[in-house]
Design a protein that fits this description.
about 70% helix; about 190 residues; mainly alpha
Length: about 190
Amino acid sequence: MDSWNQYFYNLYQYINEQDRKIRSLENRLEHLENDTNQHQKQSVEKIEYNFDQLKIENLNGTLHIGLSPEDLEGVDDFSVPKTGKSSLQQQLTADLNRYLDKHGEQIIFDIAAQRHVSKDDVDPKILIEDMAKQLPDRIAFYENEVKRNNQGLSEDQLKNHISDSIKREIHHSLNKYMEGEEIHNENGSP
């Protein structure tokens, strides 16, 4: 009989312990629910972002900075006026694009041959597209460089200087690129 009493006593103790844990968990749950409700009542009035520089490489869709969805309801057009390139920049861009279209593939294959890089390992179309995308920035760089150095060049001299500098840069960059391709080929990598 004593073993039954001991069994019921242990069972009673276990049930009391479980009951105490359940009450403790219920209290914690209630406390967490209260905290959550208090946090939900708080609202953020204003978020400010300060951008020193924002560079977007590729944007598909629409990016609205500094506007909430409510602000967009009354707006018809968000187009940004295009910054006008100087006629020199436009002319140089067109000339250098023609240069790349006419001579780019041959330059790439010639440098590849000099560097012992297989024509199959080089895609001239991608390289030419990449170089063409960089032309406006490179033209602006060299134009600013001439202005910083106060070189008193006429417009024709400036155009020739920038064009020649970019053509040299194209050759130099392709050589460096092919140098990397040559290393990949020697190591047996694609």
